[in-house]
Structure formats: structure tokens, C-alpha cells
Specification:
Protein name: Potassium channel domain-containing protein
Organism: Clostridium tyrobutyricum DIVETGP
Largest sheet: 4 strands, antiparallel
Order of helices and strands: HEHHEEHEEEHEHEHHEH
Structural class: alpha+beta
Strand content: 15-25%
Strand order of the largest sheet: 6-5-4-7
Number of helices: 9
Number of domains: 2
Keywords: Membrane, Transmembrane, Transmembrane helix
Radius of gyration: 28 Å
Number of strands: 9
InterPro entries: K_chnl_dom
Length: 289
């Protein structure tokens, strides 16, 4: 009978221990989201990984690629989200669309690498380019409007790193079309593009265009700004982990409280953990002499 009661006591204390751990984890999670993470100090790699994951989620990027993750982290670390971006109404095929521009400088290598990896992940291998002519945006910025059509080789055995002539179209499947505005396009065209070809591999040529573009192909800069500014929901598992580290008094230090209120809650949880552990130990060794 005493053994039965002892087992019940142990199980009850274990349930209480787990409940307290989860309860405080939820409290930390709510505090972090309401304070946009300001009430906690995160080790750089944890915070960066969280922001990268949130960026991919908001951009509906469902595949895993270390290179893509690294490129997103570079965008965050280099503070690309702080650049002045603006949406303008642009006429495309007799329809006004909104396009996102940045006028302080061209997009650069980090964005070029990111967009290349995005396109490559979709299986895109080639592109065709059409110069829509010099275009002065808002009467102040001179650039060339470029129409880019993306294609995928129908046969995987074909060389995806080669350029092809226009009559090769039967072996390519069109995926989609974008418009970008490129500075110094005349120079880029003269240096890299040959009139004899029509379809170019994206591994180099697309990056050259994006690097010198003043227009983003999608909403990535806005999402990057939201995520980098803490405008996202932190995953709860980070704070369940923090609660577990706190209640067990391990204290790894990769997540730290950064406000008086959170420190008080941490102290309360630590005391609860010590008390429960002490009672549990006493219960286990109750009959031992």
C-alpha cells in the first residue's frame, strides 16, 4: 500500500514539474511576442535562425537549402532592410502594376545571390531578355526597363549552363515573366550578352541583372523589414526550452531575461523547480533507511 502511494506521489510530482515547465514557457513566449523580443537577449545565431525561419515562412519558401538560408542571413546581417524602398505604379502591358524600387543604390550581390537561389529552387534554368527601352522613373532616375522570361529545360540531360539560340524554344518550358529596371544596362548588355543567343543560363547572367537592378522582383524587402524589426511571432519551442533550462537550473545563457519583470518570473520558476525536485527526491527515497 505504501509503495502504491509512493508511486502515485512520484507520478503526481512529475506531472506538476512538467506542467510548471510548460506554464512558464507559455508565459515567456507571450512576453517575448508582446515585447517583440526586447525583454529577452538572444544569442546571435538563435535570433538569426528564428528570423530566417520566419522570413521563409512569410515568403512561402518550403524547401530547405543551406545556401539560401545563408543568403537570407547575409541580407539581415548587412541590414538591407534599412534601405529606403518605395512602391510605384508602373504600366506593364497596358495594366498598372505596383513595383518595388530602391533608389539609394543598386540591389547588389547579396540580393542577386538570394534571387538566383530562389529561381534555381523552382527548377528554372534559362531566361530570355527583352530591353523595353530607357525609362525615367518619377522623372529623376534613368534606367532600362527589362522584361525577363524564365524557362526550364524539358530534358534534364540538356546542358543547363549553356546559352541557346531562339530556335531552341521547343526544348524549353516557360515558367513566368518579370519586369525589372536595370542601371547601366547598355554596358552590361555589351559586356555579357551576345546577339547570336536568345536563351541564357540564369547561373551568371540573371545575377548580373539583379545586381545592377533598382527594382525588386517581389515582396522580399518588405518581409525582410518586418522580420528584422521583430514584427513576427516567436516560436513557442524556444521558450519551452528556456523554461526547461531555467527550472532545471542549467542556465546555458543562449537566451537571457532582459527586464526586471522577466527576471522575477525566472526566479519564481527556479524556486518552484528546486522545491519540486527536493520533494520528488524525498518521495523517492522515503522508505530508505
Amino acid at each position: 500500500m505504501r509503495i502504491y502511494k509512493k508511486h502515485n506521489c512520484v507520478y503526481l510530482l512529475l506531472y506538476v514539474y512538467i506542467f510548471v515547465l510548460i506554464f512558464f514557457g507559455i508565459i515567456y513566449w507571450n512576453i517575448a511576442n508582446h515585447s517583440r523580443g526586447e525583454f529577452f537577449i538572444f544569442q546571435n545565431d538563435i535570433n538569426l535562425d528564428t528570423k530566417t525561419a520566419m522570413f521563409k515562412k512569410k515568403m512561402h519558401i518550403k524547401f530547405y537549402s543551406k545556401d539560401l538560408n545563408d543568403s537570407i542571413k547575409k541580407l539581415i546581417i548587412s541590414e538591407e532592410y534599412k534601405r529606403p524602398i518605395v512602391k510605384l505604379n508602373i504600366l506593364n502591358n497596358s495594366i498598372y502594376d505596383k513595383a518595388t524600387f530602391v533608389f539609394d543604390r543598386v540591389l547588389g550581390d547579396n540580393w542577386a545571390n538570394y534571387y538566383y537561389l530562389i529561381m534555381a529552387s523552382k527548377g528554372i534554368t534559362h531566361m530570355s531578355i527583352m530591353d523595353m527601352g530607357e525609362n525615367k522613373l518619377n522623372g529623376a532616375f534613368d534606367s532600362h526597363k527589362i522584361k525577363i522570361c524564365f524557362y526550364k529545360l524539358k530534358d534534364d540531360k540538356e546542358d543547363k549552363f549553356s546559352s541557346y539560340k531562339k530556335n531552341y524554344s521547343r526544348k524549353l518550358k516557360k515558367i513566368n515573366t518579370i519586369y525589372i529596371w536595370v542601371n547601366n544596362y547598355s554596358i552590361i548588355n555589351k559586356e555579357h550578352f551576345e546577339d547570336v543567343y536568345y536563351y541564357y543560363p540564369i547561373n551568371f547572367y540573371f545575377q548580373e541583372l539583379i545586381k545592377n537592378s533598382i527594382c525588386f522582383p517581389d515582396e522580399s524587402p518588405f518581409i525582410l523589414r518586418q522580420v528584422s524589426g521583430g514584427n513576427f511571432t516567436y516560436p513557442i519551442w524556444n521558450f519551452i526550452y528556456f523554461s526547461a533550462v531555467t527550472i532545471t537550473t542549467l542556465g546555458y545563457g543562449d537566451i537571457l531575461p532582459n527586464s526586471t519583470s522577466v527576471r522575477i518570473i525566472v526566479m519564481i520558476e527556479t524556486v518552484c523547480g528546486v522545491i519540486i525536485t527536493g520533494v520528488l527526491t524525498s518521495c523517492i527515497f522515503l522508505d530508505k533507511k
